[in-house]
């Protein structure tokens, strides 16, 4: 047998060595300095915290030397603005013992804790709190986002703990008139309208009992002024600052409540209007063959509302047998998605008094429950139909009478036009004779006549000539009214230039300007006559101006031709008389004429489907505009 192995004779490590080894492997940076603040011991984590500064971390080195070097190297970016001040602050903390937080580059946070030992030495432990700081930052950003959203929300936000308000956003202040500071710490219940407090209490009881209740409900809250404001409350359980809380969204629904009231009033008005118009509305659920009727539907069909709307098959029995197929086809088309529009049907006189009804059937739609539904209307038009039948019988006799009277009127008008033309035509020869013989007497017998005799013969001649001109103008007016229109492309500019050449010798001192004119469509003879009258008038009424001027052009904005002069003009108060036959705005002693020319212009332009109008002021000339159909 061999001898038993002997125990090792090596001495166990001392406690100081064990402590040193433990501190060396400690995961957080540790530094021990003597009473003179010189380094006695640092562990591996402390060396790794300060790479490149190992020569300043040897035992005996002053603690402040490695701190200044680390600061100069940018290890403490938040302290670079005042490095000397921060080092002094750091030394003061070390001497008294304590802790502080500091950010190490690039983005690491440390909690530095200095422990002052009994012999004056200082033990420094650096705890990594980066994760905590990031969490705090994330929380701060989250709270900032919440506050930003909450403060910008139109809806009010309250946070309640133990039935008291611990947070409120500005919207609550706008809604209630209470400042946010006034609301914090107050109970929510007193803000609720007394008539609604029981509802709030009941909901709280049911929620506390674990019942599932609708999260939204409507109540009234009281403002600072005592006004009751309708709001919608939405509640959700949350955690606020580490404690259970209730998040309450307070939405102003005054507009909705007003709309609901208006809707109720509108529905009542609709019922009243349907009664007045004898118009009923209905709803049918094809799958179940049942539906709903408005109050007027019951009145139309004489049905007791207590019985409800009849099934479709029963309803068909109320319809005239000849019209039942029409009802069925309309409903079938509606179910296929096609509205049939309005149609008429009758009630069955064997069941109900005969009524004539107008109906509409809308294309199928779907309810919130996705059930097909068809809607429509029925209007009692019995009185209208009976009136139409009476009118139809009356029209049958009236139409014949109208045809007879129209024929008589057309014959009378034709006779009148023919008479007017004949009278005007037959007057021309006598008038010419009167003027001619008066001239001959003056020329041949003038010496034997007294001065008064010659004057009187001159008056006869002058009036005979004027009467002849008047007859000529009347013939022209009759001609433009009776003549058939020969529409053709019309070169208005060429026509205006030709007329200007004809008129120039009569007004040698006048300046005549013809601008480019767009072509038109019309009867050249009639348009020539109208344009001649307008241009002749412009030259006649501007003849007394220092430099007479007449301009024919095109007004793009008005879409019209114009004739402008710088003559005597007229007062627009009398513009309505311009285009009436025989109406004159200036005495004949000043300007000759018959008063027919502008009436001819109006008749020609209106026969072409256009219009003519004038603008002027006394002494400021006049402009006449007229429209014609554009050339094709």
Q: Tell me the count of domains.
A: 5
Give helix % range.
40-55%
CATH superfamily of the largest domain: Histidine kinase-like ATPase, C-terminal domain
Indicate the proportion of strand residues. 15-25%
CATH architecture of the largest domain: 2-Layer Sandwich
Q: Low-confidence parts lasting 5 or more residues at pLDDT below 50?
A: 1-9
Report the total helices: 17
Query: What kind of sheet is the major sheet?
Result: 6 strands, antiparallel
Task: Report the CATH C-level class of the largest domain.
Answer: Alpha Beta
Explain the overall architecture:
This protein is 43% helix and 22% strand. It has 632 residues and is an alpha+beta fold. It has 5 domains: 15-128, PAS domain (Beta-Lactamase), CATH 3.30.450; 138-252, Beta-Lactamase (2-Layer Sandwich); 259-380, 2-Layer Sandwich (Beta-Lactamase), CATH 3.30.450; 386-464; 484-626, Heat Shock Protein 90 (2-Layer Sandwich). Strands 11, 12, 13, 14, 15 and 16 form a 6-stranded antiparallel β-sheet that branches. Strand 22 and strand 23 (622-626) form a beta hairpin. Helix 14 (451-482) packs parallel to helix 17, helix 15 packs across helix 16 (524-541) and helix 16 (524-541) packs antiparallel against helix 17 (597-607). The radius of gyration is 54 Å and the shape is elongated.
